[in-house]
Amino acid sequence: MATIEQQSTENSLEDKTIREEIKNPYFWYLIILFTIYLASLVIPAIIFMTYLVLFFLPAFLETTNFIALFTEFKPLIALITMPLILIGCYLIRLFFIGLITRGFWSLSEKRSPSKEGIIPRNFPSKTLNYYQMRGFMIKYGKNAFMKGLFPWLSNWFFNFIGASKIGKGTTLEESVCNDKFINVGENCYIGVNTTLASHLLEGIFGNISYFEIKFGNNVTAAALCNIGAGSEVFDDTYLLPLASTPKHSVLNKNKKKSFYFGIPMRRIFRKKIMEYLNVKPEDLEKNENINDYKDKNLLKKLKPMKDIKQSEVFPKNEQEFTDSNEDNIDINNINEEDLRIDFTTSSAISRVNLKFLIVYIPIFWLSGMLDTVIFYTFTFYVRNWILMAFFLPAMTIFMWFIFIIASFFFTKLFLILINLIHKPKEGFFKAEKGDTDFEFWCLRTEIKKIVLWLMRNSPIPWMDILAFKWFGIKMTLSSSLYDSWCDGEFIKMGRCVLIGQGATIMSSMVIGNYLIIKEVIFDDYVVIGGHSTISPGTIVGKDSVVGAISTTAYNQILEPGWIYFGIPVIKLKKNRYAEERRDIVMKKDVDEERKFEVEHEINIEEDKKDLT
After folding, report:
1. β-strand pairing of 539-540 with 520-522
2. Do the Cβ atoms of 453 and 541 come closer than 8 Å?
3. Which phi-psi region, left, alpha or beta, contains residue 181 (left: φ > 0; alpha: ψ -120 to 50)?
């Protein structure tokens, strides 16, 4: 009886919950993006064109004697200074990217200051709009610094615009996050693809947990660590790879040298560290002169490494197939040896002859020819150097987009031709040379790869959605991929699907000797957490959430309205984030292994707090 009443209460709450789609102000996004992109080019372009016209052109380009370029003073100085001018202009442009971004950031902070709290996402608000706008405006600058020639300048960028506080001597490796509301102390190392997620999305109609992450001094986070919003990591803490915390975790508050590992992470000690690092007892005996290795009892406790024969790792003969027809594959009789993990997704190209790469040549040549004609036309009609300098930044952007779009167009033509020769299909196929389905899958993947890379590295980050749509993926512009990796075929997405940063969506994968291709389907309002992996054949029901660092199994079906987590994912709880109290934060003390509730103000305007 109680269960029926409880279910009735939950259904009543669900009916009363506001569920309004959030509309992103794309117009303002474009204004901000192109203002930062174009305005940052003005001063460097003026400096470069002044140098080019007044010095480089007469001193170097107009020199008729080739030997004089290296023997006379002015041509030689022009030749030497050109690289310096280019580097100087590049650094000046980075400065103006930071300066303009800082202006937009300061303006947004005046209109709606950043503050900790839960931001409701089931109805529009000023707080939510400016939170999303700040997340967008920082992206171009972050990529320009972290993926540029001088990635260590990213610390200056974050500190300068006021998005985060990064201490002296701290290194931030490239990652998909780590851009706002983090406070990192001195002499810290944040490894590759480690995520300091100060903001976490909890369902399309749920909440955004927005809390500052604080790191003390001398903190090391290895690769692929994930730190939840509101977490505090004190001095002298070491996080091993893949160590992850939930929201509001507190680590090493006693500030003793401590190591953490696991999902969720916990403190580990010296023996576990040595086992994790695969340190052999023999290695320790060789280093007994080092104080840390003098513990004889520890040496006895460590399990000796078993000798592994080479024949157990590398079989003498590979399995031979006499027939490449998929109908001869008995899926029910596939053994463990067949499914030994070898490689996945597009890395399978390494097994195929590089002859497929020759397709890039006509794509680039045709696209480059189009750009050449456009540039020749520009220089033919614009003879005035002042006008040429004025329009050059816009012309450069225009030509870059023309090159991308032309590459996209010619790639599509090649794909149409290839699909007419051999139509893509789902199923189990043998992953070996000579198998028609496998080789054409490799060809399709390789052709799409270069265009998707060009679009993902373009100034407009959502251009890859247009590419995926044209390549055949069914999705709407209301969905977002957020720096995730996604296959280019056999994927369907409903409305407002969010794929988290660093996630991998695979409609095809190679396991051992077999290629598996199976359509992946996401219903409306699905959220896939960061660094999660979706396997072929997965179907995710409406309004479901797959937690971060989770993996689905092949052909797994996730029911609508649930939150899933794990490897592979299992049901965690019903997706009712929009119905939970937003003024209560559950903090967790990792060292003492206890949880406690803390009241916190809801991050929303006063006139809309009654809607929460």
Report:
1. parallel
2. no
3. left
CATH C-level class of 26-268: mainly beta
CA distance 305 to 282: 9
Task: Mention every residue, 6+ apart, whose C-beta is less than 8 A from residue 35.
Answer: 100, 104
Q: Which residue has the tokens 């002042």?
A: 386
358 Cβ neighbours under 8 A, 6+ residues apart: none
pLDDT band at 307 (very low <50, low <70, confident <90, very high): very low
Distance (Å) of CA 445 to CA 451, 512, 515, 584: 11, 19, 13, 47
Domain boundaries, the chain: 26-268, 341-579
Q: For the chain, what's the residue count? A: 612
Give 250-285 as a DSSP string.
EE-TT---EEEETTTTEEE-HHHHHHHTT--HHHHH
Environment class of residue 598 by beta-carbon count within 10 Å: exposed (0-12), middle (13-18) or buried (19+)? exposed
Structure tokens at 346: 């597009």
Each residue's pLDDT tens digit, 264-284: 888 876 555 555 544 455 544
**β-strands 557-558, 539-540 pairing:** parallel
Spell out the long-range contacts of 101-106 with Cβ–Cβ below 8 A and sequence spacing 24 or more: 101/36, 101/137, 101/138, 101/140, 101/141, 101/157, 101/161, 102/160, 102/161, 102/162, 104/32, 104/35, 104/36, 104/137, 105/134, 105/137, 105/138, 105/161, 105/162, 105/163, 106/162
CATH of domain 341-579: 2.160.10.10
Mean pLDDT of the chain: 77
Residue from 607, 606, 534, 595 nearest 564 by CA: 534
pTM of the model as a whole: 0.63
